[in-house]
Every structure is written in structure tokens, then in C-alpha cells.
């Protein structure tokens, strides 16, 4: 897993003083409204550098130093905490974790046999005070001993009810954050209000929590991770809450109607060995990219109250818990430039060119910028420091500019006034700009795609040939290929009798491809290979697909209310092309599929019904000769859903030779794994 990130090396007292000031300023901004000038990694590096310098030069330690202080000593509040709200110490890898555990067990003089392992939620710590079951006060962590009253946020936090199930007096502790969808909504609201957005979910949550009067309300989410009875309370419940294991206390919290991570794929678990703890760390890390909320690590705690009591606290953190930090998924880097490209469907897409930055295990140099509206909405400029997000397999994206890091030298992003591919005008009536020529602008790209191996699979039709046909005016789209004549082809350079006949035969063969491939060849925006297969299986015929309105299209798994109208509009635009294909005699049905009404019953009898299957590595045995797309087609013929990445939802991984991370991920998640041979056996009727 991760190693300790490097620290900032400080040369002398001046460098040290500057570093302390920078850390103090950053921490202040971070805890105030999330607008820190440093990303988490850079801050950690800096504080480690400060710590190292202080160990070497104890006489030089400044009182304002952030080391050993909760929240870097940044924040003060006026509501005292009943019990200090501490921080957690960090480890950055498996080895450090076992060192920490060994140290703890030495201190306890015994082995820890029950560990609790839960996600480290990336938000803000909050204390929620309930009196006789009613939520009466919300307080931020502040400097750990006193925080700020943010009770105005009561009623806007999902998972933190106004009333508990029982009329009890307790203090809940947990994390307030924004889920991905709450963040989107908050950005849209702020956008509509003042034309700006939030830098990331964490700063959005911080800003939202601490702003008293805002003309719009943004929803937040709470996940509890602890509970405290009043210090002087000796009731049965209070005694139980002090003596029960942490895991059982969390069950009690959930039973009170408060949200814990129990309902998520990263629910807290108890582990009896450090090996199992490590395994769980792997499992949580593996599903991180798919979670609807941010986590920045895993918290490992002694589950038993007796262990916690014996371990005690340092001034900053409990000794019975540790944060296993995961690599940052967001960093700040510079936006150097923006490139514009016209895609296959004529869409003109901007791409950010970044100062290379290491994120979640890879170097990111390019990131998606979506569209022009998005650029203006975020107010991005060339030279801006920007937050860039990447986790797992996701395409890196630029989240927002860090406005307070501007130097004044930033330049506006040049927006193209003509199509970067053909120079014709741009249709800017939609959010996604397109060349007025639409698909025709990059006809060659759409034709290459249509005849590709996973679509019509026309052998011998390389790019130079397609270009030749386009230049000769024989074709304008891929449907025209089916009308090419022997005479036309023979009249071209480098086209002999044999190659002409072979090509014509290959084109003829392509007419009988299943509908799923013909549909994929159309290159409908928002539908790739697997979506095309789902659409074809769902509707069974092209006529059914064309007759479907947005609502009917939404019945296909994976097509939501946003995509459905796009598909309908695209099909209308493609009508002349589809008509031409029909006229050419191209197959327009999906073998074995039945139209929607009866569809449901037939699916359920299939061997892979309702299973999500992922294929990885080189196939062997009966599957050896199949392309990946063909294996996926096989999965879907057998009633399953082919997916490309392993997640908690995966039912089966077919693992061939030379597998890498997918197998490891499936193993950590406990997903069933089969060899290609075993799998071929299961679906032999569909081969
Ligand atoms: S337990 C005495 N559990 O991480 C502190 N904290 O970096 C015990 N956090 O201040 C905290 N998820 O705000 C705990 N599952 C979790 C957590 C968690 C996030 C936060 C918490 C804490 C910070 C330390």
C-alpha cells in the first residue's frame, strides 16, 4: 500500500518560521471554510518537516507551531466541549500499522483481540447534543477543547434526526459532509446565486456548516462514530455506553435512528487479527472510488472499552485508535493550457493540460473539462491553481480554480470560434458544443469506429481505404459502404481483383451482425458497447428502439432521465443513416432477444440472470479465440450483465492468465472467481 510521503526539508530557523506561518495560515483557512492554500498532502509534508526540525532544534520551537495541536491550533470557539474532541494519529502503510499495533500491545501488556475497522469520513467533526431525545445543539470541533455553535444547521443534515428513538440525553460525535449528489446540488445552487462553485465537497460542507445566513439551503450528511453520556450520569444506559464495545455502541446509535456507516459498503466491522484488519483496509480502499461520499482513510480502533481505557490518550489523540491514510485523490496543480478536439459525433470537447501531478498512484497530465459552460461556470483561467480529482479508474477531472491563489497573471481561456477539426462553424445552442457538420465533420473517425472489430467487424477496411473512398466521393457515412460496387472499387488505386472481392465479401458478411453491433456502429452519444447490447436485448428490433420515447428508453438499465432524451434525439438525427442501412439489407434484430413485454420472464431462466460479471486476463480453453467484446456478448446472451470493473456489486470474475489488480480486488471483496474453462462450461449452451 502507501509509503510515508516525503517531508518538507527546512534548512534554518528562517525557513522553519516561514513554514510554521504557512502551516498556521493554511490550517486556519482549512478549518474556517475549507479554502486552504495547500492540499492535504502538501500540508502533511509541511507539518512533518516542521516536526523533524523541532526534534533537531528543540530550542527553536515557536509557540505558534501547529505540531501536537488539534486542528493545527487554527481554530477557537466559545462552546466548551464536555470531553475534548481530539484528533487521530496517522499511519501510511501496512508496516507502520503493525508497528503501531505492536507498540500499543506492549503498552497494554497484552494482545488486542478485537479491532474495529471503519472508514475515515472526509468531512468535519461535529458534536451533536441531545437532551431527552431532542437535538438541542451542534458544535464544531474548534481547537478540540471549545468549538463554534452551528445549531442553525439543525434540520439540514441528513442522518442526524431532530429526535432520537428514545428520550435520552447523550452527545453524539461524528462527521458532517456532503455526498456527491449533495455537492452537485450545492454547486448548482451557488452557481445560480453568485456564479461561483465550491472547490470540493469538504470545503462546501465546511462553508455550508459555518454560514449562518445564506439565501439558499444546502443539504449535508452526518455519519456518527461515537457517543458520550453526560459525565455525571450514572444511569444504566450511561454505564452501558461506557462499558460496551465500540461496535455494540454503534449498533445502539443506529437503532436511535442516527446514520452510521452501517448502511454503506464500508460499514464498520470487528476483526480479531491484524491480518483481518489489513484485509478490511484493502476492501475499503478498493471500493473507495465507487462510494457516494469521500473517505481519506480507514480508522482502526480497539473495540473493547477495557482496552481503550488502558491505552488512554496523548494530548492530541487517543492511543487506542489510528488513522490509516489512503493516498490523496485530490490535489492542487496548475492549469497550463486547454486543448480542443472534435470527436466522432462532432462534439467539441475541451481538455485541460496540467502541470503533472501524482494522484492516486498515477501521474495526471490531462483532465476533462466537460464543456464550455462548465469552464465559464467555474470561472477557470489559464495559469490558475486548480483542484484536480482522480480515484481508481475514473477519468481525472478539474474540479475548480483555487481563486485565492491567483497572482494576477492568469489569462482567459481562449474559446474556439470555429470547429478545431474542419474550421466550419460551431453550433453552440446546446451545452455541449458541436461542429455544424455534426458527424460528417469527423466522418472518417465515425466510419473507422463503425467498421471496428467490436462493431461491424469488417476485415480489411483500414483507415487509408476509408479515406480513399471518402476522397473519391463513394461514401459519406458507413451505410454507403454497403452500396459500393465492384466497378467502383476496381477503378481505385491499389485495389486488385482479389482485394476487391475479399472486401465486398467482408462487407456482405457485416450485414448479418446482431442488432447490438449494428446499434453500436451508429455511435449514439452516451452509448458504448455494453449499453448498445443492453438496448438491443431490451428492444429486440431496431423498429422497437426507434419507436421508443424517452420514458421507454429509460427502462434499459443504466439509462437515466438525463441520457434518455439524448438517445432519442440522436436516433432522430441518425434516421437517414438507419434508413439507408435498412435499405441495404443490414440485419436489424437481436438474436434470442424478446421485446420488452415478455422480456422479463425469459431473462430469469438464464444461467447468469441478474449477475454482474467481469472478465480479466487472457482467455483460455473454448474462450481463447473470442475478443473481449465477444466474451461480453456471451455473458449478456446468457442473461448476465458484463461490466469492466470489479466492485462490491460484482457477482463473478472470470479470470484468465496474467491477471492483475482486478483479481486482487475481487479477492479482497470476496467476489467469486472462475477460470475461463469453468465459465465456458456454465454458459456452453450460449457459445
Ligand atoms: S474516531 C478521539 N472515527 O477524523 C477522536 N474519527 O483525523 C476519535 N473521523 O477528528 C475519532 N471518520 O473528525 C473517528 N470513523 C471515524 C472517523 C473519524 C472520520 C475524523 C474525526 C477526527 C478526524 C481525525
Describe this structure in words.
- This protein is of the alpha+beta class.
- The chain folds into five domains: 13-73, Helix Hairpins (Orthogonal Bundle); 79-325, DNA ligase/mRNA capping enzyme (D-amino Acid Aminotransferase, Chain A, domain 1); 330-427, OB fold (Dihydrolipoamide Acetyltransferase, E2P), CATH 2.40.50; 438-510, 5' to 3' exonuclease, C-terminal subdomain (DNA polymerase, domain 1, Orthogonal Bundle), CATH 1.10.150; 604-687, Rossmann fold (3-Layer(aba) Sandwich), CATH 3.40.50.
- 36% of the residues lie in helices and 19% in strands.
- It contains 24 helices and 25 strands.
- The strands form seven sheets. It has a five-stranded mixed β-sheet with strand order 2-12-11-3-10. The chain has a five-stranded mixed β-sheet with strand order 5-4-8-9-7.
- Helix 23 links the parallel strand 24 and strand 25 (672-674).
- The chain is globular and about 95 Å long.
- The protein binds 2-(butylsulfanyl)adenosine (IVH).
- 2-(butylsulfanyl)adenosine (IVH) binds next to strand 3, strand 9 and strand 12.
- Zn(2+) binds at residues 419, 422, 441.
Please give a quick description of this structure:
The protein has 687 residues and is α+β, with helices and mostly antiparallel strands. It has 5 domains: 13-73, Helix Hairpins, CATH 1.10.287; 79-325, DNA ligase/mRNA capping enzyme (D-amino Acid Aminotransferase, Chain A, domain 1); 330-427, OB fold (Dihydrolipoamide Acetyltransferase, E2P) (Beta Barrel); 438-510, DNA polymerase, domain 1; 604-687, Rossmann fold (3-Layer(aba) Sandwich). It is built from 24 helices and 25 strands.
